[in-house]
Automatic annotation (TrEMBL):
It comes from Pontibacter populi. This is Bi-domain-containing oxidoreductase. Pfam families: ADH_N (PF08240), ADH_zinc_N (PF00107), GFO_IDH_MocA (PF01408), GFO_IDH_MocA_C3 (PF22725). It comes from the Bacteria. Residues 75-264 form the Enoyl reductase (ER) domain.
Length: 726
């Protein structure tokens, strides 16, 4: 199928051929008939993409600060690589979509195949959208009219925050598409509306809708509003303009009455004058997109609606209200359409979008069978017959882009499939690294006989199930940590491993890369393969992640202990040469949560070694992220951030220095070599289970406040096959 994307690196707008998305649980699959181009937002994105690096930096000073902080913590070259990688990431354009339902996911009962719906889907021939961002279209509304649903809800949410009453005077500053819709809805609400813009064409349209038009070039807006309100001032001001100047917010304050309300829907300079707001006791509020529920993972992605008696107007109910307004005739959007362009001719809009005088541009899509609905697209021709080390990657997120693919270079792997949920990021990465296929259906990887190794880098809750499916498909598997999020998932993985790995010579690897770093390898060499009991103190200055990020969600990410601190449990198992026997975890604070990310973990090993894992999220970014201290027989090793290792008391060794190397490249090289040699596990399955169980035990210890045994023998007895894991 075809989809419009924007390149921030080149500034080019591209109609890309990507695989069609698959419908997921709680989502609606839609074949697009019309989309509306949001000229304000999309002009900003296109012009940002065309700007040079210096201008990009000037436009985003907050991002520049983040870059400077990253240079301090990670160094110059890793930061430069991260910045350019971010710029290479394509951005899907558009958010005003109309089409017909092709399929509904599990848990969706509000829609059926064939329904006409409006959604916030992008400019793409087929989209998959969560049900709370989809609204049914009344029969008397055309697809073109319905395309205004989402952008109309942005204006409607600004009005709801302003809370105007019958007879009030409201000024709308900026009569672009959102501004004109906002002004017309305010008129329908019984308000006297004054519209402010520099464009005479927009002022003419506003006047035709009963809105009082004002051009600030020819009229003093503040004085005009005062005269129009008999010296009282505007009851409310809604700013839908996009400008860098601070003059707009100042004018809004000056034209407001005492205790007036100002709502910002657009993007302007916000250097507020305290005096202007203080003297009148003005209220100022910023409107968030379509309404309550926006950017709420539970509402949007999981379909958990807010109860109507307590949250009357959600973003979906705002969508439905805009559609009702169009259906009843109180909102006329047909008059705003200035051009209709076929999807293939998109450059008529985007080629010179900065100079466009259009109010509303509609993209028209091909009908029916003209759309390619395949889940996989072939990017280049290639044959993998008879070769070993052919991979298919499931997941095209940041780890795949920034870590896995660069580390796989030089391994000799054959790149066949890149799978991603939406298809856009997966296709971009597939093209960059020479994959022959991009897909949105990971099961095609499992069914392809060419593929030897499936590499899984999805969100954590999908790991165990995909590992099980891949083993059942008789594939070698690499999965980024963690292996599983709970004991049930782990048992299913173990059962699949026992059923398929032994008979078919398959391997299962987990992304525990630290043990492959040259620094850890050197430490292991220095203490020997059969060391006496040792003490290890490992500290991870992990950094703060906001509570609403998915890694903290116990159902999706498992929390940062199960999801990341497991790296250091593996590292200690490797250095001690011994399984973990028992574990005790203590968290920061008087009321620690299960998914806390400030903990100290005490670890006992079967050979008598001791370990301490300090996993902290409250440290400073400029301090080293990772540090390992090892104490043994009057000797000490200190590893700092995988850049420098110092030895004290070791004959012939004092220091090892490298660029930062956490062992990813070495791990992947060994993995691909293993496949070509017939498949040897990089880490014994017994250790993988032991480490995973230990991370679960740490959480249980936090709940009870006691030591928890990591009893492998008892666990293995519960496995349905009961085989000894090699």
């Amino acid at each position: 199928m075809k989809q419009l994307i924007q390149s921030f690196k080149t500034g080019e707008t591209i109609l890309e051929n990507i695989p069609a998305p698959q419908v997921k649980r709680g989502q609606v699959l839609i074949q697009t008939t019309r989309t509306l181009v949001s000229l304000g937002t999309e002009r900003m994105l296109v012009e940002f993409g065309k700007a040079n690096l210096l201008d990009k930096a000037r436009q985003q000073p907050d991002k520049v600060k983040q870059v400077i902080d990253k240079v301090k913590s990670d160094g110059l070259m890793p930061t430069v690589e991260a910045v350019f990688s971010k710029l290479e990431q394509p951005l899907p354009l558009g958010y005003c979509n109309v089409g017909k339902v092709l399929a509904v996911g599990e848990g969706v009962s509000e829609f059926k195949v064939g329904d006409r719906v409006a959604s916030n889907g992008p400019h793409a021939e087929i989209v998959s959208v969560p049900k709370n961002l989809v609204a049914a279209i009344p029969d008397n509304i055309s697809d073109e009219e319905a395309a205004f649903t989402v952008i109309g809800s942005i204006g409607l949410q600004g009005i709801r925050l302003l809370n105007p009453t019958l007879g009030e005077t409201v000024v709308v500053i900026g009569l672009g598409l959102i501004g004109l819709i906002t002004a017309e809805l305010l008129k329908a609400n019984g308000c006297k509306v004054i519209g402010v813009d520099l464009d005479e064409q927009k002022l003419t349209i506003a006047k035709s809708k009963g809105i009082i038009p004002i051009n600030p070039f020819t009229t003093d807006v503040v004085k005009f509003v005062e005269e129009e309100t008999n010296g009282i001032g505007a009851d409310g001001v809604i700013i839908t303009a996009s400008a860098k100047t601070n003059d707009i917010i100042s004018q809004a304050a000056q034209m407001s009455r005492k205790r007036g309300r100002i709502v910002l829907v657009g993007v302007i300079g916000l250097n507020l004058s305290r005096a202007e707001f203080y003297e009148k006791e003005l209220t100022f509020q910023v409107s968030c997109s379509y309404g309550p529920g926006r950017y709420d993972e539970f509402y949007e992605q999981r379909g958990q609606d807010y109860p109507l008696p307590f949250v009357r107007w959600t973003e979906k109910r705002n969508f439905e209200t805009v559609l009702q307004a169009i259906s009843s005739g109180i909102l006329d959007v047909k008059s705003l359409i200035t051009e209709r362009v076929s999807l293939e001719d998109y450059n008529k809009i985007y080629g010179n979008i900065g100079a466009s005088k259009s109010i509303a541009s509609i993209l028209v899509y091909p009908e029916g069978g003209a759309v390619d609905k395949s889940a996989t697209v072939t990017l280049t021709e290639g044959s993998f017959k008879g070769s070993k080390g052919v991979i298919g990657i499931i997941g095209a997120g940041n780890f795949t882009k920034m870590t896995m693919l660069p580390a796989l270079k030089g391994t000799g792997a054959g790149y066949k499939y890149m799978a991603s949920a939406g298809g856009v990021t997966g296709t971009a990465l597939a093209k960059k690294y020479g994959f022959t296929h991009s897909t949105t259906n990971y099961k095609e990887i499992l069914q392809d006989q060419d593929v030897d190794l499936v590499m899984i880098t999805t969100r954590h809750d999908l790991h165990a199930g995909m590992v099980q499916e891949s083993l059942e498909a008789k594939k070698h598997v690499f999965v980024e940590k963690p292996l599983a999020l709970n004991i049930v998932q782990l048992a299913e993985v173990v059962d699949a491993y026992q059923a398929y790995a032994f008979p078919y010579g398959l391997t299962l690897s987990v992304g525990f890369n630290r043990r492959f770093s040259p620094h850890i390898q050197k430490m292991k060499e220095l203490i020997g393969t059969s060391p006496a009991p040792i003490n290890i103190v490992a500290t991870m200055n992990a950094g703060f992640i906001p509570d609403n990020v998915w890694v903290h969600d116990l159902q999706i990410g498992g929390g940062r202990i199960i999801g990341e601190a497991c790296h250091y449990l593996d590292l200690m198992v490797y250095l001690t040469g011994s399984p973990i026997k028992s574990i005790c975890m203590n968290a920061l604070g008087t009321n620690p949560e299960e998914n806390t990310d400030n903990v100290s973990i005490l670890v006992k090993f079967e050979n008598g070694s001791n370990g301490v894992v300090n996993y902290f999220a409250n440290g400073h970014k400029s301090y080293s992220k990772e540090r390992v201290e090892l104490y043994s027989q009057g000797r000490t090793l200190i590893m700092d951030n995988f850049r420098k290792t110092e030895g004290f008391g070791f004959k012939g060794f004092s220091k090892l220095k490298t660029g930062q190397d956490k062992g990813h490249a070495a791990q992947f090289k060994k993995l691909i070599e293993s496949l070509k040699l017939g498949g040897e596990p990089l880490i014994p399955m017994y250790e993988l289970v032991n480490i995973t169980l230990a991370s679960f035990a740490a959480i249980n210890s936090l709940k009870t406040g006691n030591w928890v045994d990591v009893n492998m023998s008892e666990y293995l007895k519960k496995s349905s096959h009961g085989a000894v894991l090699a």
